[in-house]
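ok so dumb question maybe but i'm new to this and my supervisor (M.) told me to 'just get the structure for histidine kinase' and walked off. so i did the thing. is this what she meant?? sequence i used:
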Amino acid sequence: MRRSPRAERLSHGRRPPFGRQRPTAAKSPSRRGNRTPFLARLRVGRKLMLLVLLPVTGMLAFTAFSAIAQGQEARTLGRFRTATEVSFATTEVSDAVARERIAAVLARLRPGPVTLAERSTAERATDRTLGRATDRAASWPQSDIVGKLDALGRQLHATRVQTGTGSLTAATIAQQYQTTEEDLLDTVAALEAGRPTRAAGRAADAHIALLKAIEAAERERAELAVLLAAPAGRRPTVAVRWSALEEAQLREFRQNTSDRLRAELYATQFEAPGRAVRKVRDTLAESDPRAAHWPSYDRWLADSKARIESLRGIQDQAARELAVTAAHDLDSARTRAVRDLVGSLTVLGVVTVLALALRRSITRPLSEVSAGARALSDGDLSYDIRYAGRDELGDVADTFRELRVTTERLAAEIRSMNAAIDDNRLGHRADVASFDGTWAQLLGGMNGTMASFAAAHGRRRKAEHELEGIFNLSLDLLCISGVDGYFKRVNPAFERTLGYPAETLLARPYIDFVHEEDRAGTLSALERLASGVELAEFENRCLREDGTECWLQWSARPVPEEGLIYAAARDVTESRRTAREQAALRRVATLVAHGAPPSEVFATVAQEVGQLLNTTAAVLRHEPDGSRTVLGTAQGFPEEVERRTRQARREAGRRAMQEAARTRRAAGVGRSVAAPIVVEDRLWGFVVAASPLGPLPDGTESRLGDFTELVATAIANADSRAQLTASRARVVAAGDASRRRIERDLHDGVQQRLVALQLDLRLAESMVTDPTSELAEQLAHVSKGLDDAFQDLLQVARGIHPAILSKGGLGPALRSLARRSAVPVELDLGLPGPRLPERLEVAAYYVTSECLTNAVKHAHARVVSVEAAIRDDALELTIRDDGTGGAEPGRGSGLIGLIDRVEAIGGKLDVSSPPGEGTTLHVRLPLSGPSTDV
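this is what came out, is it supposed to look like this??
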């Protein structure tokens, strides 16, 4: 191997070969007596590291002190966060005790199974929350919260024992619980008193202020419950004291809370319960509150409970804000600690890296020469030493550069073999004879690898041929596309499904074949695929070559490193069409099952047909005289298009219905298709579909016929239901007419005859000269019996059909019933000035009359309230009594007749009659009445 000129020069020059010891230079006289300094005896790398060590040590000390201080801050914030969690658990105990207090007060005021059960439930809930709070307080080491909670539990137990004996009044019970509540609130305030930051302090102040405000509202609720439970004449004078405390606490809450909770508090105060509570406070604040303005016991409990629950909802949000603030402060402290630590370590790292870089720039030549020597000893001839110094290491560097020539030759052989692989020239082999030793062995191994690769390539080609057959024979749509938006390869199923040749599919962007309404979703799915996300069961609509739509369900897997997407699709057009038809059928059947009006059912059938076929649709009934009545229509096109083609469609529809009536099968004429509706072998009607824009697709007749067969039963049920409703309405109307006729006959016949007999009898009495005679007494007796018979006849006529109902309307008739009732009746009538339909007035009158009779005979009620008003185009009638309750329509009572009468005119009657709690009837009668037109 020929050496370079520089190598020749070095071999004959002043530098010795590598490995020989350089001659020691003679010391000069000036240095002969000097000793070598300490730093001169150190290696260069150690000197540089010693220079960096001093500032690095100082920075490490600063970092350590900073980390200790920030760790202490984080521990303080962590303790505060733990304290807030314990305070939240204690707050739950406070809420539970407040609920137990009001339950105990209510059970003392009005003892009964319900109130006693509510008190027991509240006590169990308090025990559960107290147990959870005790478990949570075990994690707080600062104070004996567990001991305090245990003492409060024993105190609660003592209060419950005294309450259970009945020896305490309601006010005393509330006071006993108040002591426990105050201890709990003091505990919460002590837990949240840490306040390591300003934000945490404000959030804690807001939370505690709202807790105290809720406690004031609870105290007010209990005291007013005691007040309102007393008889009206023995109610003591009360002073509004808790409202002022509550307002003070709410004012502090507003000063410290967020704008959002401040707005929610404002909204809560102006909701219905808040207004009701404020009205009660205003009433109690008067110097002489009138008893009529005082709320009822139940109303006050309901309003105050709703308002307190709203405040508790805001309390929960305030607690969450406090928890979020504590967590945010803790996270911020930890983040600052980590940030400072990372910053310090980064600076240390940078300084260290710079020191190492400087050390490396000095020691690298030495290391490079040493590594080159080791590589040469290990036989690694590819190592290149770039050092070009004029010392002993330069000789070694020249030797390595000469070895690169041999390396290049070897690389050329390897490149030629790689080129042969790329050109599929798998028979190429390297020239092993021109190399010796290790190089020859390496090239021989590469020749063996080439032979193995040739065998594997043959097997791969066979597998590709097999895959090609599967790709072309698959019934599903298979394709390979690029992220550039073009198909790279499609199988024949693509051509069969979409109708385009393969050249067209590959030449155009595949978004061109997607329906316009689905392009945005398809592009979004393609972006996800391009980002490497797999896609499964994605559906979109594609346009065939003939312009029709087809639904495809895709599954795709991207290969981002190759820029390709492998996808498979399945044509789900028919399955989606079947699913749509089944869904439409379910909607129609559900509508019929819910008792919808026939007009709504038929309109829905027409709408479903129009949506399924994308046409105009109608449902028509075939009358016995051969005419047809339109029951429901649906337009699927603009009004202008419908109007322009209406006459042509009517003619085509008429001819289609004639053909369908003749063949009893779906028939199409022009742009219209008609399918017969056959019910019990009788031609009931038709479903007609028409398109004003163009001819209907193939298969429309069969699709319409199949759907019509499915909905025929639903149409028949709707028809039968409508006929039954109309029949019931006619029966009720006929009965009312008979009542009016009988009442009129009694008034014009029998009553007039009795009046004439009374006049004749009075004349006979006037003709008797001796009023003490037996004849005079007999005439007086007959006259009295005739008067009694006349009054009985008036009652019978009024019971058959009251004349005041026909003359004055529902309002005067109900007032007449109230005056004649044996129990007091409270009327609240919000009826309009104009008369209501007669069927509504009659039904409302008889329902009220029957209820008043039942309240006297069976319920033994003390008072009955009747409310009537027009709401949402309907007459709503509510009748309540405070009787024994327990009325059930299913036991054959008169309520069954009332329900039949109300439902016959399209109304609804609901009965609520818990035993011992009175009876409430709610009647809703629509002003429009039931539909009788099918």
